[in-house]
Amino acid sequence: MSTLFPGVYAGQLGYNQITDLSDGEQLDVPKGTQFALVQAEAENIRWRADDVVPTASVGMVLTAGGEPQGFTGAQIRAAMFTPVTGGAILNVSYFG
């Protein structure tokens, strides 16, 4: 068990690796998720959490191999992800 953010106890609830990411994909978030860490692997990925599907050129960028991006439980439930190019892999760890 670890503390990822000050004052927040972080028990891991699950992990996903999506290797066949489709445009506007939403995640199946485990019940009780309070926050998540998301990282792009191999290729960049774009995301949005405002009910608009990201495209290969519009949306926030997750840089392949970059630092994991933190999301609250509400943000990760609303987020949609789109690969910038083929071969993108999305890694997600869920915490409660």
Would you give an account of this structure?
This protein has one helix spanning 73-78, and strands at 2-5, 8-10, 12-18, 35-41, 45-48, 60-62, 69-72, 80-83, 89-95. The chain is mostly beta strands and 96 residues long. The protein has a single domain, classed as Jelly Rolls, CATH 2.60.120.770. A four-stranded antiparallel beta sheet has the order 3-9-4-7. The protein has a three-stranded antiparallel beta sheet with strand order 6-5-8, with no helix packed on it. Strands 1-2 form a two-stranded antiparallel ribbon. Strand 1 (2-5) and strand 2 form a beta hairpin. The longest helix has 6 residues, at 73-78. The termini are close together. The mean pLDDT is 92.
Order of helices and strands: EEEEEEEHEE
Termini separation (Å)? 11 Å
Globally, the shape reads globular
Count of alpha and pi helical runs: 1
CATH class: Mainly Beta
In total, how many beta strands? 9
Backbone structural class:
mainly beta
How much beta, percentage-wise? 35-45%
Strand order of the largest sheet: 3-9-4-7
| Fraction in helix | under 10%
Number of domains: 1
Which radius of gyration do the C-alpha atoms yield?
Answer: 13 Å
Describe the main β-sheet briefly.
4 strands, antiparallel
Low-pLDDT segments, ≥5 res: none
CATH architecture type: Sandwich
As for the CATH topology, it is: Jelly Rolls
Overall average residue pLDDT: 92
